[in-house]
Amino acid sequence: MAFGGVVGRSLTSFGTNLCCMVRQDKNKSRVTAKGTRPVTPEVSDVSPRTAAPVEVRPPSPTWVGALVFGLLILGFFVIMLNYLAVLPAAPSNWYLLGGLGVILAGIIGLTQYR
Question: With contact defined as beta carbons under 8 Å apart, do 57 and 95 qualify?
Fold first, then answer.
């Protein structure tokens, strides 16, 4: 059997030569004439761009970092104490949900920390 399960046909009989792709003639593939350069605008035509002033925000206060990491650690401990059955009525899915919520609050705080 030949290529594609068709008996008696070669690769070139499908209209293209799959094994040897020939590059197109250079004269036919050129869009602009050889030796030309792209047109550049004059210096006076270009308007000067002025950058918009960037607002520089001051760094976050120290208590923000402490609060964020405190929330992360508190959420971790709530989850761990839930699984160790130290909390009342533990293990409970509500403690797990609360711990994950506190961790999420810490992560949201980290996105605003500078």
Answer: no
